[in-house]
Amino acid sequence: MAVSQQYHKGAYMHLTLNNLVGTPWKELPCWELVVEVYKRAGIQLEPYTMYWPDMNSPWHEVKEPEVGDIIVMNLYGNNADHIAVYVGEGKMIHSTEYAGVCIVPMDRLRKRILGVYRHKEAQND
Predict the structure, then answer these.
(1) 93 and 37 in contact (C-beta within 8 Å)?
(2) Which of 12, 39, 69, 82 is found 20 to 30 A from 6 (Cα to Cα)?
(3) Residue 13, class by beta-carbon neighbours within 10 Å (0-12 exposed, 13-18 middle, 19+ buried)?
(4) Is the pTM of this model over 0.90?
(5) What is the pLDDT of residue 121?
(6) Over the range 94-122, which residues count as b (16 or more CB within 10 Å of their CB) and which as e?
(7) Is residue 88 within 8 Å of 13, Cβ to Cβ?
């Protein structure tokens, strides 16, 4: 089932992910958070080293995010070093060392976004 179908327009996603908010980064760092979100949508992901640095398939870059798309960012340097999941309504869920898991407006980190990617199993057909 497509991630955005599983999480209809973000409303269901917020409800099912709210119990993750506040989890410390040590318990759920950014990629493991992405894995958990996709697991809840019925999609199993590999370790991020299978996809980085080129976001090889099953991912493809998209211009506009849909619920469940991943947002690749540069928070600490010049390369991709952070990832989040778009949850709809202009918000994303991510995990940082200082804040843990939180849902924030995408605009807050827009200058840091390197790309938005959709998983092949998360298509809206």
Answers:
(1) yes
(2) 82
(3) buried
(4) no
(5) 79
(6) bbeeeebbebbebeebeeebbebbbbebb
(7) yes
Residues in the chain: 125
- Encoded tokens for 5: 């179908």
**CA distances to 20, 35, 43, 78, 96 from 75, in Å:** 22, 20, 27, 8, 10
* Dist CA 88 CA 111 (whole Å): 19
Using the predicted structure, report yes or no on whether residue 13 has a pLDDT greater than 80.
no
Q: Can you give the pLDDT at residue 55?
A: 59
Q: Residues with Cβ < 8 Å from 7, sequence gap 6 or more?
A: 13, 16, 41, 67, 68, 87, 88
pLDDT the model gives residue 41: 83
